[in-house]
Specification:
By secondary structure, this protein is of the alpha+beta class. The chain has 16 helices and eleven strands.
Length: 452
């Protein structure tokens, strides 16, 4: 077997694999014998079908399979041994002559490969990159405190209705004289939330209502005839409830309002665990520390964006064989994705360029993620997910279990590896380039992303 490489251009390689009968004959013979052992044909005992019949029936397909295996192995062995920097998968050359498996013994296969462009992305202390230190001001701490208060909201009794309150009371159907209808629908312990009425005029009837007041409204109009809502209000089957389209009187027995949790020890314990924080000052200090850590991670993320912009400006657009890359993308995706690939090709090319630059930076800084670092990244991601729901006091043991589940999912694992690499790469690059520190507010920092 002979494998050779030609380079029609610096970005495209043409690998030719010449395979002779001696390169695959033994494998074909073995495969035929294995097939014969399992073959069952009428008139023959299992495993006793004559080899001539076996070759006639499955010989060409087995030969094709073994030739394909031999060629594929030779192709990828060559790429690995020659350390070719290949983009995507090799594709059969479009000018490839047809290979006749039944009549040929020797074959020639040609493959197009997209090659990485040559470029130098080395960074030094001469490269100046901005780094944005985000100020954790009192307003941000206040905002976070309010967030914890909102997540721990609890119901309190109110005297006068305000938008968003829950009303509880009794309801009865009225006749044309606005008097309780004889034989009409009536229900006790009904709950209403006028805030979610579809009709504004029906909401208005409840404005300023007090405990003990009676309000006349039309449930059908208020809920736009919604069967489920009508059934819930009138406490009857929804199919029957929608037939009652007139006015009702609702007598308020209770007004319930969700109030933010007070900033007290109970709130501290809910957020950080029993007695972990014992005063409002400690509570705010803990929040400020966590925000600072979060903002530092955001600043590191921004550093990589600025490094990318810096190097893309220095390198310009890297040379690629765009026609071949389009073919590779389309070959590895569903036919229905072809139009989308064309539409987003420039974006894909830009991401490919950054991927190659990032790989050079990883090599320069010798960044490597150890298993314990990946586990720590997964736990941090899990902690952040829980924190979004106000769950900040999660035991480490439970976080580890959740992180382990995340790492078992291949897509999540790849994402977490990338995140861990980016974290270490940001830290490493701070010791390579000249950092230009800039103090900014969170609003100013966020505006940096609006330019993109």
């Amino acid at each position: 077997m002979k494998v050779t490489l030609d380079k029609p251009t610096a970005q495209r390689g043409l690998i030719t694999v010449n395979i002779q009968q001696t390169d695959y004959a033994a494998q074909v013979e073995k495969a035929l014998k294995d097939y014969r052992k399992k073959a069952q044909l009428p008139g023959f005992r299992p495993g006793m079908v004559p080899m001539g019949i076996i070759k006639k029936r499955v010989g060409p397909s087995i030969k094709a399979e073994e030739v394909d295996k031999a060629v594929t192995k030779a192709l990828f062995d060559y790429i690995r041994e020659e350390k070719l920097a290949v983009l995507g998968q090799p594709l059969p050359d479009e000018t490839q002559e047809p290979q006749r498996i039944e009549t040929q013994d020797d074959f020639t296969f040609r493959f197009d490969v997209a090659l990485e462009p040559e470029f130098d992305a080395t960074l030094t202390a001469k490269d100046q990159i901005p780094y944005y230190d985000i100020t954790v001001d009192d307003a941000r701490v206040d905002e976070q405190v309010k967030g914890f208060q909102q997540r721990a909201m609890h119901p309190v009794e109110a005297k006068e209705y305000e938008d968003g309150d829950v009303l509880r009371g009794n309801i009865c159907e009225l006749d044309e004289n606005k008097a309780p209808k004889e034989g009409g629908v009536a229900a006790d312990e009904v709950s209403l939330m006028p805030k979610y009425f579809k009709a504004d005029d029906q909401k208005a009837y409840f404005e300023g209502a007090m405990k003990g007041d009676s309000v006349i409204f039309n449930p059908s109009v208020a809920n736009d005839g919604n069967e489920a809502e009508m059934g819930a209000i009138l406490k009857m089957p929804k199919e029957e409830a929608v037939k009652h389209t007139g006015e009702f009187m609702f007598t308020i027995t209770d007004i319930s309002r969700m109030a933010p949790h007070p900033v007290d020890q109970e709130l501290f314990d809910q957020v950080y665990g029993k007695d972990a924080v014992k005063s409002e000052d400690e509570f705010r200090a803990r929040i400020k520390e966590e925000l600072a850590q979060q903002f530092a991670a955001d600043s590191d993320y921004r550093l990589l964006i600025d490094v990318r912009e810096h190097l893309e400006k220095r390198l310009g657009k890297l040379p690629f064989d765009e026609e071949l890359l389009r073919r590779i993308l389309k070959a590895s995706n569903d036919e229905n994705e072809a139009e989308k690939i064309d539409q987003e090709f420039d974006k894909s090319l830009a991401e490919l360029q950054w991927h190659l630059i990032r790989q050079r930076l990883i090599e320069q800084t010798a960044v490597k993620v150890e298993p314990q670092e990946l586990q720590a990244t997964a736990q941090q991601a899990a902690r952040f997910q829980f924190a979004q729901y106000g769950m900040t006091n999660i035991p480490d043991e439970y976080l580890k279990q959740y992180a382990d589940k995340m790492l078992q999912d291949e897509n999540q694992r790849r994402s977490l590896i990338d995140r861990a690499i980016d974290t270490k790469l940001s830290a490493a690059l701070k010791n390579v380039v000249k950092i230009e520190r800039k103090q900014v507010s969170l609003d100013e920092f966020n505006k940096l992303f609006e330019k993109a």
